[in-house]
Amino acid sequence: MVRGYGICNLHRGIMQKLSKLMLAAVAAIALATPALAWDFKAAGSVTATFNMKDAKASSADTITSSPKTFTGTSGAITLVSAHTEGDKSLTFTYKVDYDGGMDETVTLAASNKVGDWTASGTATQHKVSNGLDNSTGIGHGQSWTNPTTGSITGVTDGVASVTLTDGTMTHVLGSAVHLAGPTKGTLSDAVGGGADAKANVDTYQGYSFGYKVSDTLTATLAIDMDAGLDPECHGSPTDHFAAALTGENLNSTCFGVNVDGSAGDIAYGFSFGTGSSADDNGT
Predict the structure, then answer these.
(1) Alpha helix locations (H) across 170-266?
(2) Is residue 239 situated within a structural domain?
(3) Cα-flanking dihedrals φ and ψ of residue 267, to 5°?
């Protein structure tokens, strides 16, 4: 009897240990589940073309050239992974493109909602190896840093913005197109010039406050503060201040207003900006 009681206790102890192991395994799986709850997708493009054309001067009787070409090209490859947990979301994007060199872009976009407000931002890093030169680019810090020789790898500065919105009011701080160019049409042969009709604005480091007046009307106030020998206003590539002529460091302050809306089938937009500049002595 004593020996049988010992066997029973031994069996009970083994079952208890197995139960604990099973619970531990279930807990481990439960803890690992959120890390595996990521959606994944990949995208790319491949194009193939055949081109045949004849070229002949209007005054000639014979064809001067008749080229025929086959081409097959591959575009950039993009990998995207997204995760959502409650009011939080993350999206990771990796893009690679070979164009005389390996160009890479890594992006992480995230948002988090607390109460009625949602904060969001996107962190982006670029690495380019094909000698792309955008040293005259707009946005203060978005220029490629590598030279035009094409053999040295360059990395762009990480510029970004943070957005805070409750659906009615929207605050944007950082690098963004804070003041919209209300383009409602495109350039045609009837309009001279080399650009569409729009406000002379672009991306810049600043602040904007947008207010949704109604479902069809939104108003935005934008602020831009810049400094240097050639400050810009609202990211425009056009020199608004003759800083290069004075040779002095200037501080500029610009304000802009945008109204964007629609009335039935008619969409309309209006942007207005103004600014002033002064040197370090305030003159």
Answers:
(1) 243-246
(2) yes
(3) -105, 140
